[in-house]
Amino acid sequence: MTADPSTSRSRAGAFRRPVPRPYARARVLLFPHGGGSASYYRSWAESAPWDVEFLAVQYPGREDRYSEPLPADMQELAAVLAADLPLDGPPLPTILFGHSMGAIVAYEIARQLEAAGEPVAGLVVSGHPAPALSRPGRVHLGSDEELVQELRRTGATNLEILDNASFMAAFLPVIRSDYRLSETYRELAGPRLRNPVTVLYGDQDTEVDSREAEAWREVTDGTCELRVFAGGHFYLDEHRDPVVEILKAQARAASRESAAGWPSTP
């Protein structure tokens, strides 16, 4: 994979601003699925309004972070990403969004931020069972051919890429690492979140069912809302716009709440 030269970095190494919003009043951090990269969310950032900035997360080992070591486990990945916070610029209300593996990464970062006294304004998770019901697996232990077949099954990767032998030779170690992170993940004991949680999933998704989605209610003492879309694991490809609208609405609501709580000038 090649880096997108039009994508600028924040002060830290993990966060990309595909389309800067210098007057933003809230931000949304976007965590990709396993095997995904920051460029997946470029079109989302392009549709963001002037007052909400979308930042896409670049995991180690891909695109312009290709030479960086792959994390040992999910908690290490979350810690590496959380270390890049706070972002440059003024503190802003922040919504975390993650799809598939990215849902767990976003959740683990929300836990770390709350533990540090920096709660997020909201957590939006997509296409993944609740942490306590995360499914173990052995895909990461299979052959390269078995790994490619799994990618075909889930629709996670463009078919042209899957048929490119030289590209896949470089890409498969990253994919295997992401499967390992997901399939070996176990939630560690800790306090429940306080922020609101929104759960999104496709009604034909074989990776998460309604019971596993409902169980996200157990991670927070705040509100929890579920939204179901028509489609499979990558329902996002057909329903990007309504999902972006959910994120924009939550970010703007958080911005209004933050402004209402700001002290008046004496």
UniProtKB/TrEMBL annotation:
Query: Where in this chain does the record put each Thioesterase domain?
Result: 27-250
- Which BP terms from GO are recorded? lipid biosynthetic process
Q: Which Gene3D superfamilies match?
A: alpha/beta hydrolase
Q: Known InterPro entries for this protein?
A: AB_hydrolase_fold (IPR029058), TEII (IPR012223), Thioesterase (IPR001031)
Family recorded in the similarity comment: Belongs to the thioesterase family.
Q: What is this protein called?
A: Pyochelin biosynthetic protein PchC
The opening ranks of the lineage are: Bacteria, Bacillati, Actinomycetota, Actinomycetes, Pseudonocardiales
